[in-house]
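Exercise 7. Predict the structure of DNA mismatch repair protein MutS domain protein from Pseudobacteroides cellulosolvens ATCC 35603 = DSM 2933.
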Amino acid sequence: MNKKYYETLEFNKVLDILEECALSDKAKHRIKKLEPYMSESEVSRHLNETSEARLIMEHYGTPPLSCMEDLEKSLVLLGKGSMLMPEQLGNIAQFFTSCRRLKSYLKKAEASFTAVASYGNSIYDLSDIEDEINRIIRGSQVVDNASSVLADIRRKIANAETQVKSKLDSLLRNNKIWFSESFVSIRNGHYTLPVKKEYKNQVKGSVVDISQSGSTYFIEPSSVGKFQEEVGILRIEEENEVRRILYVLTALVEENLPYININIEAMETLDFIFAKAKLSIAMKASPLPVSIERKVEIKSGRHPLLKADTIVPLDFHIGGNYKGVIITGPNTGGKTVALKTIGLLSVMAQCGLHVPAEGGCFTMNNYVLCDIGDGQSITENLSTFSSHMTNIIQILKLANDQSLVLLDELGSGTDPAEGMGLAIAILEELAGKNCLFVATTHYPEIKDFAKSTPGLVNARMAFDLQSLLPLYKLEIGEAGESCALYIARRLGLPLRMIERASIAAYGSTVPMAYTEDSGSTVTPSKEIQQIKVPNKIVRKPDTKKTPDTLQSNTFNIGDSVMVYPQKMIGIVYQKANEKGDVGVQVKDKKLLINHKRLKLHVPASELYPENYDFSIIFDSVENRKKRHSLGRKHDPSIIIETWNEDGGQ
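Solution. The predicted structure, encoded as tokens:
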């Protein structure tokens, strides 16, 4: 799997957390290189090991693993004539202790948890060598009774040093005036007396050192010289004996090196397995099956890098009747998090890791390919759109019927019409490759495309219209809405601006039956919330009369019409324009509604007398007052807006 996709899904961050659960450098290195296994049986084996390790920890506590710090640095010296130092031998003995304890720990679990406990059978008991090292080495030193020869040498050294100290103490007591201090000082390995400068000739012997001020001479008296020489010879004998003992221990370790290496391998493997178990416990994760069946199901899944108490669990499924899921909904609604969660949990499961979910299953993927985030590159001089397309082209080259593809904000970053077209072409290509894919988008045309294309299904991120807050809940089978106009109105944008925005976006005023409640907020009726007005590409008007145009002209001013799908009654105030949009007055609001959504309820001829003045219905009170004023006298400053029979103003 490409490292780039790892980082996009943030799998590398999961590995960082997993790495902290391991003790040994080898296990940490193995974790850094962890990738999805390509064999179903291999995935199953690793998942089973993770599950058993967690159960063992829950039954018997934390395993006595060894960090094996600097162990390999010591063992690499073997076979080269080198001698291991006491500290190195002490570390090896500690490793043998950990092996013995781990073997005993796994022995308790072998009846119930055979997959992991069986590793204990491969651990060799090296307690004899452990005992021998511990008998000889204590606190990084070779003890006196390591051998009878060493014990005898150190006894002689102690006796000689006692005689030296005795003679020096006698000189200090009997000639206090000669000395600047009343104690024996060891300088450059010699026992000396701190003699004042003016009395240096009173003490026979060798000057070993002089104080920084020059006022004190450190003199080794000649009376203790022969004892000092004896101690020096004994020190050489001591060093030789210590080296002999250390060489014997080094040889003993070297003889058992094959068994030690097997134990190291077992310890590293168990460290890796129990690290996965520790991660599972920390994330409150579950073992979910992974198979070759092209199906993914996640029940109450959580993104492992987000706090569990701050996120809404994800329910998701793909496979079987549909291979592609198209997620729509408002910004900040959690679409990208849902996309990353699907990809990240899929990778984790295929790596033999437990996933933070209550249930479900995953499929084997040869690739988990994703295009998430803007990916803008300054160094490569790529725009957001160019970066997306470069990535998607690579994805299309790699994807096949064994792949999982995740695309965020498909077709964004360019002209909406062309972006929508590219998005549909890409989705068709993925569908043709028969891979599993999930895409997020804002384009309403793609929702229609998914609805009409076999193997594709719409999904949406739920949104609370009252609180204006995303619910971060994925609902499969339902297409989402951007809710932009509704949110803007709820936040207080004037209704006239909402209507203007609707005309600019859709070519007509979206009939939103607002109910004013608390000042600037409004609540759409249930029926109106269900209205879906598709985006349309604006083309040059066709002057030819089409059947649709002829049909739109059947509505006359004053006709009572039914508006669908809201089933509201309105009155036509303006005939259809070249787009087929008819002016309809609904509840004192003048709206432009496509003729296809209108049905004649009662014709005007049955409602009003011939030559009826429709200004009574459609004119405002202000217009009527103006008409009344003009009836009395001419005033050029008065302007009356009227509607002619062709719908013009």
